[in-house]
Amino acid sequence: WQRHAVDFYLPERSPVHAVSHGVVVEVRQDSDRTCTRYSPECDEWVNSITVRTPEGGLVEYAHLYYRGALVDEGQAVQAGDLLGLSGNTGYSLGPHLHLALLGVDDKLQRQTFAMTFKHRQGTGLLKEGRTYRRTDCPHHPASLLPTTSAGQPPA
């Protein structure tokens, strides 16, 4: 169900900015543990921040630094606001930011949606296997337009 999630490899404690405006609905920042071999308990060790967009989707920022959240649940955020610090918590093979746009499908199953990004060449989906750098983006390291691959906001 994480088919469209994107991993950005970042050094620990790198700033993580909101890619869309919305309201913070969940903050998890109590873990300082990492596991490199997956087991179900690894899921409990992931620090994350989840933001609900006005369209109803959820943007999840995962593997954040221990006590690295800089926002609170219920707080309104704008695109570009500093949310927290990147880390290496939960099931992770190295420091990175796991970014996902979540929603539910017509069977009420949790799923990710494809994300479009603003970059120097315009707006579009990131291509698998290609490397993107901060300098590829005109304003923020990841300026996300929260839409599905069909161009609709998630339900």
Distance between the termini: 16 Å
Unreliable parts: 138-155
One letter per element, helices H and strands E, the order comes to EEEEEEEEEEEEEEE
Rounded mean pLDDT is 81
- Major sheet description: 7 strands, antiparallel
DSSP helix fraction: under 10%
Structural class: mainly beta
Rg result: 15 Å
Please give a handful of descriptors for the protein shown.
three-stranded antiparallel sheet; 41% strand; seven-stranded antiparallel sheet; 0% helix; disordered C terminus; mainly beta; 155 residues; globular
Please provide a written account of the structure.
The chain is 0% helix and 41% strand. With 155 residues, it is mainly β. The strands form 4 sheets. Strands 1, 3, 5, 6, 8, 11 and 12 form a 7-stranded antiparallel sheet that branches. It is globular. The C terminus is likely disordered.
List the helices and strands and how they pair.
Layout: E1 6-8, E2 15-17, E3 22-28, E4 34-35, E5 48-52, E6 58-62, E7 64-69, E8 76-77, E9 82-86, E10 90-91, E11 97-104, E12 110-113, E13 116-119, E14 122-125, E15 143-145
Parallel strand pairs: 4-10
Antiparallel strand pairs: 1-11, 2-9, 3-5, 3-8, 5-6, 6-11, 7-9, 11-12, 13-14, 13-15
Task: Characterize this entry briefly.
By secondary structure, the protein is mostly beta strands.
